[in-house]
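Note to self: keep these together.
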Amino acid sequence: MSVVTYFVETSEGYLNSAAETQFGSVAATVGTLIVLAATLIVAFVFINMVFQVRSMDGRTAFWLAVKITLVGLFATNWIQFNAFSSGILSGIDSIAGALVASVGGGVPGPSGTFAEEFDTLIDELGTYLNAAGSELNWMAGAMLDILGVLMLSILGGLAAFILVASRLMIALLIGLAPIMIFLTLFDVTKDYFARWLSALVSFAMYPIVVAGVFATITGVAGALITELGDPAGASNIGALIPFFMMILMA
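Structure:
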């Protein structure tokens, strides 16, 4: 059973495609404006150098040229921007995967490790649910199965949503990247770029926070399941009360 993994991988694949499409659409819309603004800035710089309306040293002119070059390189080129942003996000995901591995929750890797571990946890909890139902009569067992499936479905849905939530915001912010990179050209608007970058970094760091929480949940739940032993060996329904406690804890 790989329900959480399926939803997470499907959602991330769609969000990656959506981010690329949005980036391309925004870049195509503002591309001409970026070229025009960069041309005007260069023209004004040369005019200022001739008439010395405002003094400008060589260092300022050099960094302005570097800024214009970087804007042209990343604001309208998805390949360059995606290679840069993907490298950073992959590094953060590797850190998150290492946190999961540190408590026995999986192996270092991308954030999909969380989804796989939650699928395993839900599968083990489902086994205990079946064992609990076998200790009851058919009516009570059916009611317990319905309640258990509902609780496990909510658990899986929340896990998938938490894993996808940060990617959703990152996809939206990446789609706005051409506009925000363009705003760095002017002193009065560069603060918007700083706020956009701050939000992007915050959501990119979110998987690390999730890693610490999820690793603890899967690690503790795994340890409790191991401590309980084989669910088929439970002699009465009272012996399976920790099962319900684990679902509520997760």
